[in-house]
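FAQ: What does the model actually see?

It sees only this:
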Amino acid sequence: MAVPRSVLELIGNTPLLELTHLDTGPCRLFIKLENQNPGGSIKDRVALSMIEQAENQGLLKPGGTIIEATAGNTGIGLALVAAMKGYKLILVVPDKMSREKIYHLRALGTDVRLTRSDVGKGHPEYYQDYALRLSKEISGSYYIDQFNNPANSSAHAATTGPEIWQQMEQHVDAIVVGVGSGGTLGGLSQYFKDVSPQTEFVLADPKGSILVDYVEHGRYDEAGSWFVEGIGEDFVPPLGDFSQVNHAYSITDAEAFSSARDLLLKEGVLAGSSSGTLLAAALRYCRAQTTPKRVVTLACDSGNKYLSKMFNDYWLLEQGLRSLPQENNLSDYITYRYRDGATVSVAPQDTLQLAHSRMRLYDISQLPVIENDQVVGIIDEWDLMHTIQANSRHFSLPVTQAMTSQIQTLHKKAPLAQLIATFDAGHVALIVDDDNRFLGLVTRTDVLNAWRQQLN
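And it is asked to produce this:
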């Protein structure tokens, strides 16, 4: 086999894996590992197809500028192809996109324009309207418009569908897909109408998206919000062919994230949040069957883009998607608990250099000083500056030379009013138990998050 001379030649022909460690009822469940594409997602296929079509039609000139709106992985696919082909790329992305994706895009030379994720179509900050406006303002640019570009769905009709059909030995009872731009559903529907019209399509949709209502009732109300990236919509994408969708499942963020984490823990597949949504729906479908079926779903992208989010226990806590045992006292407000090794701290004899390094690493401005499980002080950036300003060699001094030892702690059973009073006085809340052992810090953000979660 010839060795590829471009990373673009590695797009497609991804492996298929049977999942054998999850409860799939009477069915066999297979997952196509689209996270093995060079850009890490199924959208590499779409990006290559759309750019090559624009080239063939003369819509994209050498050295030209591509503009697109993307809430998911299409942006990374476009960035990869654009970089390899020498095009400039401007992407308008909602501000809920994970940091890993944004870092990836910028490393590929993409001009990333962040916009609001809490507004709908017609608002000037809505990501698709924003991108269209840019394309009209920038001379010679090409708006690739994945939501209306037929090369999006044709990529799946020409490559993804035939690959699944061949890998499944021409026996596919059901395919579980999600819908963002609608290209995957549209392309696979087009292909399987010809080769296997009896194959059922199952829609996996984030709770808050309007597409389940559209499939089940032919109408929909105003969309809600969701954390899952890349799928779910507040409108019906023109490229999506819903005529073959036989079942539709609305999947909560919590179920999607839990399923993605199970996929890693039990099957060894590191996949993203949309993949968790698809897997959750696939498992529901499989368990509901009374006869054996061969079911296929997709690992749409790699989970390494979500390590700071759904694979981060504390992010899940902060978003109300995970909970800890409650004691009905102030300790319930602690997100990063000391007994779990989650509190970032220093010891009295640690150096100021170490204290500064931990502040930078964890993006915090103050640290408790802990000795024998008790708080003996607190050190913040001002303490460091005050001690080091005379001589930078003072970084080698122990923390005791700079910390504030006059501290106030709050017993975990203290009333909430005392916690609020601590904040009003400009102090951080240091929570202790009956033996004066340190339990953790409580910040204003921790309290606000707890109150917000009570509304859910």
